């Protein structure tokens, strides 16, 4: 028969951000455990609140299937001695299988006789299997862990109750001193302990005890309640999915309500008001039909409508000090100049092994100037970039950012505009943090994009220079995210910059600018290059590129990330061409044979007087044309030109013995192939491509 099983782990209130990933983890771990135990099921339904993680498993099989298997043991010559007596090897084998030597059979495998035992393993009842769930539960991982009492178990929060019901029957087990039963806990303030008669009753029993256990239903109810308030007042609400998720995981019985604050606080920048309400109080902001913020907010209580007026007043009262502080900071911050704030950065540490934040800005200004010139910025753009680079961290020393750290960059832009800075300079101050997540928004302005690259590049190079290199999951300064952000910005703008080999260029630029470093800039430069190549691979894997294409294009001497990205795209575009296989095989042959040449960089010459066959002249002419036009062509165009050489390359190999006995002829032909191989190497290591 099909069974339904309920598992509930009741805990003290969990942090909101942990609830959803925790129920997903429990779901996956239990599903994996059941599959390992050969227990089938139809589906698993999730329930989660701040105080509980629960699974309702439908369609569970009654028992594990029986297993009949033929177990192979030692060879006959090892299992019996010369007199036909059973050896210790045979006796030990049968004992390990729960059998005796009387159960032994001999079977031939590839001409050799072996000992076999026919083994029948009866499947365990599903209730017996479910008793193993404590090990599954206690193996869960969380970002923070707690211990309680005198126990060694660590969990997200202390476990207070367990429910384990197979249909109507309790499946007993125990975690520490908490025994599983059928009693759950209702809402902390509105409910009470209640018994569940059958697993299928779970959701309704909790609903009757003021708990909406289904996350999706709870979230839909919150949205419906908020929309009702919004529609009644002709407002618009700032729907923030992250905030909605957080609020949903803070409550078990949601009741939305609206509150207000004084109009005078609307003089604050929107970002300040939103941060004060959203990040500090978990309030939803509301606007009029023109999109202007209103002196109202919407919040959600964990309870019913009783005494809701008191709840509203309490939330309004809590918000006022936050807004008063923000208003005070906003006014005070405007009493100083940007230059005064910049001066304060000399006492703000970027990292004690590297420099102050002021010194970091000096380095970033030089890096940004190098990048801007490489990108062909106008004099005006370079001036704006320089101004932005010399002030972009100033808001870190303002009182507003000191209180609301999440506003760094945002307040920088706001204050910069108030202090009369140009719009693109002000925008760059905010945009240099972007992207703030792996797939976050990218800078929209050129100045902001270059400043973002320069700031992140400085962080990566300087941390690597003092041997603070991310390893494993350890990346406290988010260097992987910053490197990936650089790759994404370059991909977005198709900017050609020699970032993978830029340390020598920066060393000279720092020297010319008189910027002294407290670390060796070129230290671990190979590791920096490999670090960026790994982030490029990350981007490629996200694009679902074939692994051999990823390997081919990241095994390169290229310093230009945009060219590496373009090379992968070019190969991917041509991989299904009818002549792709023949072309790659021809180029691969060139690459393999060219390795036999021994030429110094810049000293490769081809002597046409040594040509013996027309194909040599033909290849020489074709390669010269490809090389001459390479600089003005795109990577895709260069790759297409290389692919078109296949007939000429094939003819060349048909007519010529590369390793000729005559040393001059041999070296001349190897020189031809080396020049061609160097052109192919600009695409990547084509040896890594798999062609069928």
Question: Would you mind describing this structure in some detail?
Answer:
This protein is of the alpha+beta class. It folds into 5 domains: 3-62 and 126-208, 2-Layer Sandwich (Alpha-Beta Plaits), CATH 3.30.70; 67-121, no CATH class; 215-333, no CATH class; 347-543, Hypothetical protein af1432; 561-688, Isoleucyl-tRNA Synthetase, Domain 1. Helices cover 48% and strands 14% of the residues. Strands 1, 2, 3, 7, 8, 9 and 10 form a 7-stranded mixed sheet that branches. Strands 13-15-16-14 form a 4-stranded antiparallel sheet, with helices on both faces. The radius of gyration is 35 Å and the shape is flat.
Mind summarizing the main beta sheet?
7 strands, mixed
Helix content estimate: 40-55%
Measured between the Cα atoms of the first and last residue, the distance is 51 Å
Number of domains: 5
CATH class of the largest domain: Mainly Alpha
Question: Which whole number gives the mean pLDDT?
Answer: 93
Oligomer state equals: single chain
What is the CATH T-level topology of the largest domain?
A: Hypothetical protein af1432
Q: What's the helix count?
A: 27
Radius of gyration: 35 Å
Strand content: 5-15%
Tell me the overall shape: flat
Unreliable runs: none
**Counted beta strands:** 18
Global structural class: alpha+beta
By CATH, the architecture of the largest domain is named: Orthogonal Bundle
